[in-house]
# Entry
Amino acid sequence: MSRYLALAAAAMGAAMLVPATASAADLVVYTSHGETTSSPILDAFKQAHPDINVTIVRGGTGEVVERLRAEAGNPTADVLWGGPTQTFEENAALFQAYESATDADMVTVDPNHIWHPYTVLLQPIIVSTKRVSADDMPKTQDDLVTAKWKELGSLIIPDPAKSGTGYTILSALSGDKGWEFVGNLAKDARIAPGSDDAFNAVRDGEAAVGWINEDLGAKWKAEGLPIEVIYPSDAVTGQVDAQAIVAGAPHLDEAKAFIDFLGSKASHEVVRDATIRRSARADVTPPTVLPELGSLNIVSPVDPRPVVVARFQEFLSK
Amino acid sequence: MRVWRDNWLLFTIVALVLCVATILLPQLRLLSASVIGDGGSFSMVHRGSGLEPVPEMSDQFQTEAVDKGNALKVTRGGGFALDISRMDRQTLRLSAAERIGTTDDGNGHLSLQLGGSSLAVTQQAPRGLFNRTAPDPLSASQEPDGSVVLKHAANAYLTFNDPGTRLTISNYIDFVTGNETVKATLNSLFISLSATLIAALIGVSLAYVVARFDVMGTNGIVFFATMASVSPPFLGAYSWRLLLGRNGVITNGLGVDFSIVGIHGVIWVIAWLVFPVIFLLSYSAFRGLDASHVEAAESLGANPAKARFSVEIPLAMPGIITGLYLATMAALSDFGTPRIIGLDLNVLPVLIYTSFLSEAGRNPALAATGSVVLVAISSLFLMAQQIYLAKRGFSVVSSRAIDRRPLSTTGQICALGFAGLVLFFAFVPHMTVLVTSFMEWRVGLPRFAFTLSNYTNMLESGLTPAWVTLSLGIAGTAVAFALGLGIAFVLVRKRYAVLAPVLSVTVMMPYVIPGTVLGIGLIMMFNEAPLQLTGTWFILALAYVIRNLPFTVKASEAALRQVHPALDEAAISLGARPLRVFLTVTAPLMLAGAVTGATLTFLHIVTELSSTIVLYRPPWKPMTAVIFENTLVDADFGVSAAQTILLMMIIYVPLYLVVRYGQSRRIENA
# Structure
């Protein structure tokens, strides 16, 4: 038996050694961006800073934040790249302030310099053309409150308790149109356990109508999928995607260089062209397929998350 | 001391301590998390329109408007009373019968001391998307009369939170009165029972046909059913959705308005997932029948149908019931299927997972309560099974194996057609993934164009998940196998008073703990120094070992019972020490039986999803987690399809070898 135990101990010991070698890299970035978004930027960063070796750890926003929280005492990560600004504000203790020279070039800024804006992401309406005919297309958020959606396959709402995007949409709409409006929306709606589930449900026609992150909507539309993307004329919800330096980052100078690089005009142009996202820099023009910000009434979250979650829960149990 | 002289006693104690620390304590931790509530909180919002209470965010404290829009009174049992009135748009006055203390640690953490308790004050102010200024910070100043003046940001929500804890059953009350939680529980019960019922109809009838009639290719049918019994748990849901979803390949091709997404799809997919275990156990139960019983029935004048329902099925019932129990448990704890194909359908494992770990709000108390409820339900199922088996406590001494009845050509065709149809449905997912792994994927949907790029991409993007899976599979199997062997030896041969029975019960506990619950328990237990294992490779290995221990212990016990103790005694009488006897005599003799158990353990580990999805943190991400997540997001599944094929090879090659090896052994013995 002791032989087995020794073997097991050796196997475990070997496994524990591996993360130690991983942290020897020059810069560790946790990111929720997918391969297509991140790799052009990382290639450009490699050219600008050939001396810095970047290790990427990928995961959903919830996962990587959870991991940062677990590691708070002894962090391995230097930068969290990706996630709405609310995530950074709710977990401000996990990050440290850094006043990047590029912060001043952005359309919005964190006065505390914890997060550094990256892209602006709107949530237009997505409609399944498999379920909805051209005559029935909604034009405004108000159009989403009618009984006809239930017959056509329902409105799908990402649960604000489980999805940051769901929270952004409902908090912004309730701030703009009041809670009664959200209550009417929820009446016949289906509730998805995450934003990706809600997006995909409309793409596949499992649900008739919902909201979508505009970059994904534009991509799907270009691929000829059976969907329509509509910017409602009364109000469009939006959030800002950001990055921040982790509190106690082991490679602070490299992290600062990375943040400065992510804020640069060159990097923002790469992102815009690779992903159809609006840059948060004031001097980078938006992707041509997306409508001008000035033509839209942008609304953003008002009520904090616990209020939105609790009120929404109350509507559902009615 | 005896402990130092008896290696096995030492081993028993160490094993017991380890099992208690890794199995029992995490569950107790979960239980305690479900009965501990926080000290309560209350909130208010102060806008231009006035000061209003926010009852949705208040717990245990009562807030009532004294002067609507201008003043509030906050009370709590035990004499706590606080008056809050507005001074101007961003200033409030807090006063009480006694003096209110304030502390400010300079980092924006502000708290009030009042009536023996401390209240942490936080604010949340709305911020326009393109706003460039910070909300005004929160600050408190003490007034000479003992009241406090609180300055805050414009339009802020203010929350006062008592960080204390207390014992409460309110989590359970919320659970049984909450709409969502009750629905999730009922859905879970309905899905697991109806899926098991469908699986039983398919599995038991196929088992009967194959066991009692001379069907061609019986070995092949059994082998394919064994293969189906270890397929990755998320495979079915994803493939069926791809074929029969609203935008599915078949539904689009036929132009029908149908979707498998929903509760009917979950039941359908889970039924095909769990039918192999019912088939395999029923098959061996029917094969184990003694010929003389059936002959006796027939000689007493029973026709075949009567003999079937009054003799054969009742005698095979213990095996069938065990199969049903295992199937119900698998259906009840399945996380992947409802998550992929359920859309807005809530079931307990998904509810537990999403309330424990989600992008947005977390609710660990709800996760803990749900976990306790799920473990209670599965324990009830186990009790029902045990009571049934105890009542029917007979065993058949099979002296003469029953002969298979010959079949007419029509009968042969019918039997083969039935078996073929069942196996076809069971392998639809595998075939779908195989085909789509050679197809071009764009924006999450396959296109009809042949390509090898999925495989080349898989090789380029790195095989890290495959190595994580393999290393966990091998290490986990080795440890579970070694521990299982040792524990089984202690339980069968040593039978220490108190220690052995306690060890036996503890080791079997994971049998009723669903993977999601096990994972959450381990996180709660091992999230703090000096035992901080969360996010490492090691915690995954630990979870897999624990989850498979009941099976390795049972398999080793069965193998051990076949090795006669006289052989041990012979070795001891020749002067060998106990450990040496075990390693050189007992272990080699039981090895053949145990290899099969170890293989199954390996297969369970590499296909494990429900605990993996809770426990893994990048970069320690096994293949199951990678593939599963790609089914949920708008990722191109092509590479994941290729990875699934690789995973199937990791599963089916060892399985094939074991079946071959096992069969040739049987022939040698015969």
Chain A has a mean pLDDT of 86. Chain A touches chain B through 88 residues (CB under 8 Å).
